[in-house]
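Quick check before the chapter quiz. The format below is the same one you will see on the exam, so make sure you can read both the input and the output lines.
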Amino acid sequence: MNLLERLEQSLAQGTVPFFEIGDTVRVKVRVVEERQYGKKKEEAKERIQVFEG
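Here is the expected output.
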């Protein structure tokens, strides 16, 4: 087992919920934006992006 597979296995959160065709699914992703100008580093902005379909 390589490093990537071990990382995926440690981050797995259990079972995937059952859903079928026609169901509405919402996926929430945490996005962290970090900006750096030269040696000056600004505070990171964090937000939750929701995808629905």
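If your answer matched, good. The first strand starts at residue 26 and ends at 33.
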